What we know:
Layout: H1 3-29, E1 35-39, E2 43-50, H2 63-87, H3 93-116, E3 119-127, E4 130-131, H4 137-154
Antiparallel strand pairs: 1-2, 2-3, 3-4
Helix pairs in contact: 1-3, 2-3, 3-4
Amino acid sequence: xxxxxxKLLSISLIVVxxxxxxKIIVSSALVLNESIELISGFLNLVYIKNPGVAFGIFRNxxxxxxxxxxxxxxxxxxxxxFYIYIKNSKQNKAEALSLSxxxxxxxxxxxxxxxxxxxxxxxxxxxxxxHWPAFNISDTVITIGVAVLLxxxxxxxxxxxxx
Length: 163
């Protein structure tokens, strides 16, 4: 197996494990909709379930439509990112890492959808009463992965070293 592919799968697996373990801990320690203040006026640990996607999009759609649609979308995204990784053998380390993070995050949230019908979110960042929508480890690594890909696209000199 290609050495880069082993790295991709290893990083993705670590992301999935950290994501799923964190969700198990939160769902075991808190009651649904419970919140614990970690940093006053800035960060709470919450336990919520999001049936939709980012910002609750599709949450009001009937489950019989939402579940197959979001599961299919997740699977297509995972396979598309995996395909991009396989086809682009010349990517630098930053690009390879970002694709690994995106795949791992997508799988982490897909596991939630398949087993629970919704995604467990628990990180609540806010400034006073203004709250950002709650998110989880998978959401975080997907965002980081996309940010690194964009930086790599617009500022390639930052990431010169090839794999």
